[in-house]
Amino acid sequence: MRDKLSKLGKGPLEKYARFVSHHAIVVLAIFLLFTVFTGYQASLMETTGTSQKAWLPEDVEVINTFDLIADQFAGSFATSTIVVETEPRYAKSDEIRDVRDPEVLRYVDLLAERAKLVYGVVGAKSAADVVKGENEGRIPPSLRSVKSLLEHNEMATQRISNYISDDYSLTVVRLNLLEDIDAGEVVEELREVIKIDKPPGVEVELSGDPVQKVTLQELAGETMGTTSLVSFALIILILIIIFASIKYGLIPLLTIVFGLIWAYGTLVLAGFEITPQTSGVMAMIMGIGIDFGIQVTKRFRYELKSQKREDAMVDTLKNVFYPMCITTLAAVIGFKCLALGQLPVMADMGTMMATGVLFCMVAVLTVVPAILVLFEREKGNKNDRRSLVDMFHARAIQIFY
Asked: Is this model's pTM higher than 0.90 or not?
């Protein structure tokens, strides 16, 4: 087996290693073009929300039943709520302290009517509907009138309890939404709805399934950006300490930079979307990919002690190629095994991690070696020029003295 690997190392692998070492600029040009293409695709990727339905496989009976009922009763499975709460700031003021106040009832009635204008909202109900239903379609002019109306009607009192809390400090507008709507657009429009002028001492917020989905999506995007930035900064610090060099500390980072760009661009082309559940994949890929960059850089510096730059890189690639391929293969197989379960989200995570690790390996065997050679060649040219100056200086001394 070793003889076969040795022959292979002297054949295609050595030719490839020499091509990368002696044609570093060509290699960089090719992969920079690929980076521009995949980078543009990666920029199109957005974090999307997921529902509980998305966690389950399509052939599960509960999903089939869900789809069947949703087709027959559109809008009955997505709900949202506008919450209106009294929050007076001063003890003695004209701020509202009871949501049965006609001013609040007129406000929630206006919110419901405005919400009905939003595409996807198929129904909006509030305490104002109950009061108007018991008072010939009108809201009484005073709080005392509202209390009197409700006290003499037990049915109305029970119905209004679905919209008003026991301590009369909170009331809600219940919205029914179509299931297949764009949650982001609906929530954005509902946020505009609740911006209308409100009574003094009253606060208003949104809640419900679409709002939670959009909020989770926004937080996932922020979390992914924060964790990636912190991880990247810590990796830079650790690498600079390990290599005691800014240059050698930064070059291994190109493994994860290029690997992530290529992976995410390819995933976009394949139709993948980032969800709150898969947003942490980037940090995992960075943790595995940076190890590849460290291996190549350390091995190159070791080979550089006894060889020229190009030859040092040839031996570096020949020595790290097989271990790196085996590590990548094991990681890809392990991550893809997540697809053996019945949860689509886990399968997507496995595919994303496998793709990221694979492209990190490609980056560390192409871009990183080319850049290492180019940087060392520039340094070597300076050393050669310095040696040439010293030689002429020594010759001049011999001539004159």
From this structure: no
Q: How many whole angstroms separate alpha carbon 10 and alpha carbon 321?
A: 13
Sequence-separated (6 or more) residues with CB below 8 Å from residue 296: 252, 255, 316, 317, 320, 364, 365, 368, 369, 372
Class of domain 2-44+251-396: mainly alpha
Per-residue model confidence as pLDDT tens digits over 330-360: 999 988 887 776 667 778 888 888 999 999 9
The pLDDT tens digits of the residues spanning 99-157 come to 888 888 899 999 999 988 888 888 888 888 888 888 888 888 888 888 888 887 788 88
Q: List the domain boundaries for the chain.
A: 2-44+251-396, 70-211
**Three-state secondary structure readout of the chain:** CHHHHHHHHHCHHHHHHHHHHHCHHHHHHHHHHHHHHHHHHHHCCCECCCCHHHHCCCCCHHHHHHHHHHHHCCCCCEEEEEEEEECCCCCCCCCCCCCCCHHHHHHHHHHHHHHHCCCCEEEEECHHHHHHHCCCCCCCCCHHHHHHHHHCCHHHHHHHCCCECCCCCEEEEEEEECCCCCHHHHHHHHHHHCCCCCCCCEEEEEEEHHHHHHHHHHHHHHHHHHHHHHHHHHHHHHHHHHHCCHHHHHCCHHHHHHHHHHHHHHHHHCCCCECCCCCCHHHHHHHHHHHHHHHHHHHHHHHHCCCCHHHHHHHHHHHHHHHHHHHHHHHHHHHHHHHHCCCHHHHHHHHHHHHHHHHHHHHHCCHHHHHHHHHHHHHHHHHHHHHHHHHHHHHHHHHHC
CA atoms within 13 A on the CB side of 30: 11
